[in-house]
Design goal:
Largest sheet of chain A: 8 strands, mixed
Number of helices of chain A: 2
Distance between the termini of chain A: 95 Å
Order of helices and strands of chain A: HEEEEEEEEH
Shape of chain B: elongated
Strand content of chain B: under 5%
Oligomer: heterotrimer
Radius of gyration of chain B: 21 Å
Order of helices and strands of chain B: HHHHHHHHHH
Number of strands of chain B: 0
Number of domains of chain A: 2
Number of domains of chain B: 1
Largest interface: A-B, 24 and 32 residues
Radius of gyration of chain A: 24 Å
């Protein structure tokens, strides 16, 4: 193998390493804890009156730590409620059946996510179970509306 | 007035004809691709002249775009008290848009025009005809390795561009503008999504790579066999590739922005 | 090797009534000629008579509109790439400037057909390449790049490359153009020697009458899309046709006119002065 060929091979090898290394770097900086699941997960369902701007792939958190993702959002045409499917990491399969699910906001103006509040029951939620206790998203408009109403009420006293 | 209308119509017709010829050429390449794997040396040589030699330019560009992003966003973010998000902002912009687009534009200018000139020169000096007469298919031997090398190189270059951009933003943000280092990285982790952002960025750069490489080999292969023809092929490659990149970017951004 | 059939033609290449049009112009209009095996034939004619087109027809790069080009008893046709390439491996072509691949050195250029078409071991390739380079006198220049070669040297390398697969036919496209007299002498000797020593057939496309007369066994003069005269150099010299005489003797005026056709001189002068 001539020197020139070797130089080319080394150069190309380094280039590809650099490129793949960059991809690995970017991957490592963007993966949050718990996102690299070992693949095992189970499904829970929850119904809400209003989901706000909750999107698929939004985090599902327990005590603020992400343990899963929203995998599907549909509407029940009979009940007129949103049906949200949650994919939870199988490491967290000890959620009591009276756990509640709230649609919370990141910061003040951030995106929506689902916060789980564990209950106290001995029985645990299993695959395809439904979370009974849910709280819908607090819409900013409603909040402002309530605030305005209160103001008018107090100012007219 | 009529003359300018006719001129517009003619150039549109020319564009359409070129576009049609271009499509035919791209389809023609397809059956050659599987066989090209049998000769990896040809592809390696091309990756060297196309990718490796574009490396310095790309790293430079990435680093300075990153620093510029940090500087530019600083004043606005500080006003909203969101200075800790500097890293996330810069990274997202880089990974989703600037990395794929700018790296591809740089590639089109440096490597795309080089490929067009090289192949065009081979056309002009009868080398391609000589190959045909030696019963060697010039498309298999000359065109396809360059195309594959480009398609492989552009996403790698885009990734390198983004990485250096993030490092540039880090250097300026943390060491110059006083952003907290820990916050810098953790905000990135929070906001920038691997699949949505990095994934769509890589996908875009793959599409750009295919366009840039195709355009370069096409212009070179069909260049007029004169000195003027070769230089025209090189300029056309840069111009048309750039237009296509920006067009594709518009379309792909529309598709991949989450929630849109 | 298949036994020689008694029908094997004495002609390696036959062109039968070929008509080839480009747009409205008929470049060839009923062209017929036969190239005998083992001969050196010169194809000549005034500029623009389509000599390069003829080369392209012989190698199958172009398809005649009518008539047939026959090589080794079979019609040359671009119908299947396999067959076409099989035909082309038996034909070597030397371009005007050698058409060497600029990113390969001399050795690699000559080795190119071997590397692409055969799986010969490296040792054997080396021997064949060096032998061919030696026969054109450039063995010691094997490391040079094409850009470092003079026109004559590039052409010689091109010749070595064209011969490396032992073709049956070799076609030279204007091999004397632009060379100094020494280089011309070298090429002349090489063409003749190669043809006789290797027992192949050569076609030389040229308009150098003097060289053709020295070199060729047969001369074909093409004009207006047809063969207007053919024969040995001696026969051509004695040909009485005025076109043949104008060409062979290089006369400025004759059937190919000096003046570009148009209005007569006196008419144009009168038109300009307004009388």
């Amino acid at each position: 193998m001539s020197n020139e060929t070797r130089a080319i091979d080394v150069g190309v090898g380094l280039f590809i390493l650099l490129g793949l290394g960059s991809v690995v770097f970017l991957t490592s900086q963007t993966l949050g804890p718990g996102e690299l699941s070992n693949g095992e997960s189970y499904i829970l369902q929850a119904r809400f009156d209003h989901i706000g701007d909750l999107k698929v792939r939004a985090p599902v958190a327990l005590a603020g730590v992400t343990i899963g993702r929203v995998s599907q959002i549909t509407v029940d045409p009979v009940e007129y409620r949103a049906v949200v499917e949650l994919r939870i990491d199988s490491n967290f399969d000890q959620l009591p059946i009276d756990t509640d699910a709230t649609i919370a906001t990141v910061g003040i103006l951030g995106g929506k996510y689902i916060e789980l509040g564990p209950g106290g029951d001995e029985e645990v939620l299993r695959d395809q179970d439904e979370i009974e206790f849910t709280q819908s998203a607090i819409l900013l408009e409603n909040l402002i509306g309530k605030f305005m109403l209160n103001r008018n009420a107090t100012s007219s006293e | 007035m009529n003359d300018s209308i006719r001129a517009c119509w003619l150039s549109f017709g020319q564009f359409a004809a070129t576009f049609g010829g271009f499509q035919m050429f791209s389809l023609r390449l397809l059956p050659y691709l599987p066989k090209a794997i049998l000769r990896p040396r040809l592809i390696t040589e091309q990756i060297y002249s196309i990718g490796v030699l574009s490396l310095v330019l790309t790293m430079f560009g990435g680093f300075f775009v990153g620093t510029m992003l940090a500087l530019q966003s600083y004043s606005t973010l500080v006003e909203f008290g969101q200075i800790d998000s500097l890293g996330a902002f810069a990274s997202e912009a880089l990974v989703r848009e600037l990395g794929p687009v700018v790296a591809a534009l740089l590639f089109a200018g440096r490597a795309g025009s080089a490929v067009a000139s090289e192949v065009g020169l081979m056309r002009a000096t009868n080398q391609l005809a000589a190959m045909e007469l030696m019963a060697v298919d010039p498309i298999q031997r000359v065109v396809v390795p360059r195309f594959i090398a480009g398609v492989l190189s552009v996403p790698l270059l885009a990734a390198i561009f983004c990485t250096l951009g993030v490092l540039g933003a880090y250097l300026i943000g943390v060491h110059q503008l006083g952003v907290d280092a820990g916050a810098f990285w953790s905000h990135i982790q929070d906001r920038v999504d691997l699949y949505d952002d990095v994934g769509s960025g890589l996908f875009k750069s793959f599409v750009f790579g295919v366009s840039a490489s195709l355009m370069g080999v096409y212009e070179g292969y069909y260049a007029a066999p004169t000195a003027a023809g070769v230089s025209r092929a090189a300029t056309r490659t840069v111009v048309i590739t750039s237009v296509w990149i920006l067009l594709f970017d518009f379309v792909l951004t529309g598709i991949t922005v989450p929630g849109v | 090797m298949a036994p020689l059939s008694h029908q094997e033609s004495a002609n390696l290449v036959e062109i039968r009534d070929v008509v080839y049009r480009r747009g409205e112009r008929a470049i060839f209009d009923g062209l017929s000629l036969n190239i005998p095996r083992g001969s050196v034939s010169a194809i000549m004619g005034p500029s623009g008579t389509g000599k390069t087109t003829l080369l392209n027809l012989i190698t199958g790069q172009l398809l005649p509109d009518e008539g047939a080009v026959i090589f080794e008893g079979r019609v040359v046709c671009p119908c299947s790439r396999q067959r076409l390439y099989a035909t082309r491996r038996q034909i070597g072509v030397l371009f005007q400037d050698g058409a060497l691949l600029t990113n390969l050195n001399v050795f690699e250029n000559v080795a190119f057909p071997l590397r692409e078409h055969t799986r010969l071991p490296e040792q054997l390739i080396r021997q064949i390449v060096l032998m061919r380079l030696h026969s054109v006198g450039l063995r010691a220049a094997w490391q040079r790049m094409p850009s470092e070669l003079s026109g004559g040297m590039a052409r010689r390398v091109g010749l070595a490359r064209a011969l490396v697969l032992d073709p049956k036919l070799i076609v030279y496209d204007e091999p004397f153009t632009g060379l100094d007299p020494i280089a011309v002498g070298v090429i002349l000797r090489l063409i003749r020697q190669t043809n006789d020593v290797l027992g192949i057939t050569s076609i030389v496309v040229t308009h150098d009458v003097a060289e053709a007369e020295i070199l060729a066994d047969l001369i074909f003069l093409i004009s207006e899309g047809k063969v207007v005269a053919n024969g040995s150099p001696a026969e051509m010299q004695q040909n009485e046709s005025s076109l043949v005489r104008q060409f062979m003797q290089g006369l400025a005026n004759g059937p190919v006119p000096f003046h570009y056709p148009g209005v007569s001189y006196s008419d144009q002068l009168h038109a300009m002065s307004g009388t």
